[in-house]
Amino acid sequence: MTAIHETSEATTPDSRSAFGRTRRRRAYRRDRNGPLFWVAIVILALVFVVPILWMYLTSFRTEADARTIPVTFIPDALTLQAYRFVFLDSENPVLLWTLNSFVAATLHCVLVLVVSSFAAYALARMQFRGKNLLFAVLIATLFLPGFVFLMPNYLLVDTLRWTDTIWALVVPGAAGAFSVFFLRQFFLSIPRELEETALIDGANQWIIFTRIILPLSKPALVTLTVLAFLSNWNDFIWPIFVLFSPERLTLAPGLATLQGAESTNYPVVMAGATIASIPVLILYVVLQRYIIEGVANSGIKG
């Protein structure tokens, strides 16, 4: 009887729930390592990789080969004809467009990090009247389509005489609601005890912000850098509105000019797209670890 009593006491609801969670974890690991899981992963990878490979291979085709029916995945002959056109055509300075895009995206990233980090720190740590209302209005702007801000931004840029300059691509959008919200959520995850200890040691708000908050927020800052860079690098509509000179175009609208009105040289277009994709791929590969860490730690706290 004693043994039965001890066994019944050992089988408590908590132990049964813990045992159930253990079984579910084991089942999840078994399913994750099963063949169906890896088949799904391979299919998902092919969905993203095959179009990229198709773009790269098409850039090395001849124009006649790109129009051949039926379509073949492997080119009949590899040629650099499309890249010669892209790099040597004086009417379509792709290298200059690439440089314009890189400079604009880099300056835009720097401005986004500066403005968003200050605003996010104020909303996450400082106390002032109307803070909650201001944050609610900021979040509400996320539900508005981007085209709503197109005309007001254009009027502002035109008033400042920034049209057809690089500043028209850098400044608008530097104080985006998403970037402020993203950094605010990350700042809220940092323990306040670190700041309280620094205050006891005589540190002010500026020292806490620059020497504690920002170094601990490196994953989030790197993630935001990549997102801001991609947003500016791939922007197509806004540069068309504010840039008028062909030599001042960025890569996205510039590549659109490579398509003719009646026919399209697909190898040339794919060669330009390949050039546009290389900096983005390098940026992501180098900063991949920080991007994953920043997204995982940002959460939805607060």
What portion of residues belong to β-strands?
A: under 5%
Structural class: mainly alpha
| Number of helical elements | 16
Averaging pLDDT over every residue, what do you get?
A: 80
How many strand segments? 0
Q: Any idea what the shape is?
A: globular
Question: Terminal Cα separation, in Å?
Answer: 53 Å
What is the helix/strand order? HHHHHHHHHHHHHHHH
- Residue share in helix: over 70%
- Unreliable stretches: 1-10
Reported for the largest beta sheet, the result is:
none
Secondary structure layout:
Blueprint lengths: L1 H9 L2 H20 L2 H25 L3 H4 L14 H8 L5 H32 L5 H10 L9 H10 L7 H4 L6 H12 L3 H9 L4 H12 L1 H16 L3 H6 L8 H6 L9 H33 L4
Helix pairs in contact: 3-16, 5-16, 6-10, 6-13, 10-13, 13-16
What does this structure look like?
The protein is mostly helical and 302 residues long. The protein has 16 helices and no strands. Helix 5 crosses helix 16 (266-298), helix 6 crosses helix 13 (218-233) and helix 13 (218-233) runs antiparallel to helix 16. The radius of gyration is 27 Å and the shape is globular.
Task: Provide tags for this entry.
single chain; 302 residues; mainly alpha; 16 helices; globular
